[in-house]
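Page 37, continued from 36.
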């Protein structure tokens, strides 16, 4: 399986066999994380691997986490785009794990039990991962419980070459599967925006900004990194009361 194939194959895995992962795989994972492409290279981010015992010791969980291994992502806060940056990085890690045959799931409703120590970046989100016991990878996009493309695309597509990239964004995971990310295209650009949650909740707003980053990571992987994402002050106003997020420009 290639990284691009993982966009379709990935599903959220919440139960695991408990089988330990090989040290060689963990070493490869750390190497991949060390070379990962961020959305914003000016935002400090720390990524750590935790075994279950240490994770349970340091983090309060609001739902069951059955994995033996966890990825903890910390980031500088109060910088524009830091949540989208975390989502962009984390989804690339999840796709890498999927293409290696390892199940994973975003673990959004977590809290660090103690405040960050001196010099430690604030905790943002975790990912649990391991061998799945009952969730085989998907074979077809139709197996994914996602909205259809016409439901997330807010105008007629301006170029057929955007189709596979938009499909990749559509298949990205989202908190509570609310699927807030929307798209519209004009000429050679894809505009990415976000539909606010149907209820007012600060935590959900944060998670949905991470969802935007995850969708853009899918798009980035689908086009082999041959694109850039920018925030344009002069971007068109998105329709249907959506919030503008980024513009994707093909890198040709």
């Amino acid at each position: 399986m290639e990284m691009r194939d993982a966009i379709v194959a990935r599903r959220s895995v919440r139960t695991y066999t408990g089988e330990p992962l090989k040290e060689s795989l963990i070493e490869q994972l750390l190497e991949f994380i060390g070379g990962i492409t961020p959305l914003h290279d000016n935002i400090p981010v720390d990524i750590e691997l935790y075994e279950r015992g240490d994770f349970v010791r340091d983090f309060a969980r609001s739902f069951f986490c059955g994995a033996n291994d966890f990825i903890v992502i910390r980031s500088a806060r109060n910088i524009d785009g830091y949540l989208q940056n975390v989502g962009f990085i984390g989804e690339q890690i999840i796709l890498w794990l999927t293409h290696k045959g390892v199940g994973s799931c975003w673990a959004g409703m977590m809290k660090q039990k103690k405040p960050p120590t001196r010099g430690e970046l604030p905790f943002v989100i975790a990912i649990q991962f391991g061998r799945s016991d009952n969730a085989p990878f998907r074979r077809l996009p139709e197996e994914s419980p996602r909205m259809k493309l016409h439901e997330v695309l807010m105008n007629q597509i301006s170029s057929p070459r955007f189709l596979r990239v938009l499909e990749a964004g559509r298949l990205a995971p989202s908190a509570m599967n609310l699927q807030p990310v929307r798209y519209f295209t004009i000429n050679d650009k894809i505009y990415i925006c976000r539909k606010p949650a149907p209820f007012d909740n600060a935590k959900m707003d944060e998670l949905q900004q991470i969802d935007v980053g995850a969708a853009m990571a899918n798009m980035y992987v689908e086009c082999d990194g041959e694109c850039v994402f920018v925030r344009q002050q002069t971007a068109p106003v998105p329709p249907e009361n959506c919030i503008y997020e980024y513009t994707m420009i093909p890198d040709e």
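The radius of gyration is 18 Å. Flag for discussion at group meeting. The longest strand covers residues 123-130.
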